[in-house]
Amino acid sequence: MDLSKNTKEQIEFVRQQLISCEIPRDSLPYHEKFDLLYEQYSQSNLPDLSKNDYWRLLLTVGKKGNIKQQNKIKLHPIVVTKREKYEILRLLHHSAGTRDRLPYTPEFDHIYELFNIRTKKKPY
After folding, report:
1. What is the pLDDT of residues 70-88, one digit of tens each?
2. C or N: which end of the chain has fewer Cβ atoms within 10 Å?
3. Which of 24-28, 41-45, 52-56 has the weakest average pLDDT?
4. Rounded to whole angstroms, how far apart are CA atoms 43 and 64?
């Protein structure tokens, strides 16, 4: 995402959100903390963003804003079987280098649905 498309106010608002967030940025997608941050952003007087655009703004500000991820609470990873790991790799093979842009997109929703069908896993 090109930050020039966002106002200085948007960038600073999101930067402050990331600094005060207690979990790492990469743990935010589909976490209740993301929903809380998105709600805070949505209730501000800043331009409306879709969840995907907001996520991409978080990513860009976090990476370009040099926001440290140390001292954040590490979340326990979700335990997956070898079969599930294989299926994730199979479904995401074409997305190398762009996976961080997938959350909150129809493409990700489709991948999630396929994963659940193929692994017979119940959605969370």
Report:
1. 678 888 888 889 999 999 8
2. C
3. 24-28
4. 25
